[in-house]
Amino acid sequence: MSATADLLVEPDRLAAELDHADPPTLLDVRWRLTGPPGRDDYAAGHLPGAVFVDLDTEMCGPPGGAGRHPLPDPAALQAALRAAGVRTGHPVVVYDGDGMSAARAWWTLRWAGHRQVRVLHGGFPAWTAAGLPVDTSVPAPAPGDVTVAPGALPVLDAAQAARLAAAEPGVLIDVRAAPRYRGEHEPVDPVAGHVPGAVNVPAPEYVTQGRFPDAGALRERFAAAGVDADAPVGAYCGSGVTAAQAVLALHLAGRPDAALYVGSWSEWVADPDRPVATGGTSGR
Questions:
Q1: Is 21 helix (H, G, I), strand (E, B) or coil?
Q2: What sections of 154-270 are H helices per DSSP?
Q3: Active site residue: 84, 120, 237, 250, which one?
C-alpha cells in the first residue's frame, strides 16, 4: 500500500469500504475555531454510520497553560474512543469540513498507538460533491476495546521547539497566516509574533480545502523552507490543530518523523519569559 493510501482515502473508495461486512469505524470530528459547534453540522447530516467525537472535549485536554488544545489525558481519550466504537487493530476513518480537525484527530489516534487511521480526503464537502449518501440518524456503536498507548508520534514541548528553531539544519515550521507570523495581526492569542528562528509556511501553501497535492509538490514546498532528508522538522500553529495538518502533509512528503508542537503559540505566549520574534518572510 502506498504512503498516500495509508494516510488518505478518497470518497469513492470509502463508500466501497462501507459496503463491506465489517466497515471502518467512522468518526465525524467537524469543528470550528469560532462559531457554532461541529455537533450541529453532524446533526444536520453526516456519513452513514459516523459517530461524532468532539475535538475540544474528547480529543484534547482542557485549555490552560499548556495551550488551547493540549494533549488529552490518556484514560479520558481511551474512554471517548471506546464509546465511539474504536477497536484494537480495526481501521478508522476521520473526517471534517476542511481537513484541520480531521488531521488533529488522525494525529491523536496515531500518537495514541492506533496506526490504522486515515483521513477522508476533502472531508464532508468532497463526500457530498460526489453525490454519496448522507444520514441524520445517530448510531449506537458497540463499545470498542482500543487501548491508548501514548507516544507513538513525536511531540515537542516549548523548550524542544525553541531548540529546533535555533538548530541547523533543524526546521520549525509556523503554519499560521503570514500576518500572524510577522506579528502584524493576532486575532486569538494575547501576544503577536512567532518563535524565534521558526520559518513560515502558511497552510494554504500545502493544502487546499482539505486536499493535498502529490508527494513531489509537497516535498518541493517544504524543501524551499529548508526541510530535507537530514533536517529534523516540527510544526506549530496557534493551538496544534492546523499544525497537525502540516504533520500529515509532511508524512505524505515522506517525513513520518515530523514532530508536533502541541501547545503551539497559545502555550508559547503563556510564559512571558519566552522570547517573541516579529517580522520576517515566508520560508527560508
A1: coil
A2: 158-166, 178-182, 215-224, 242-252, 264-268
A3: 237
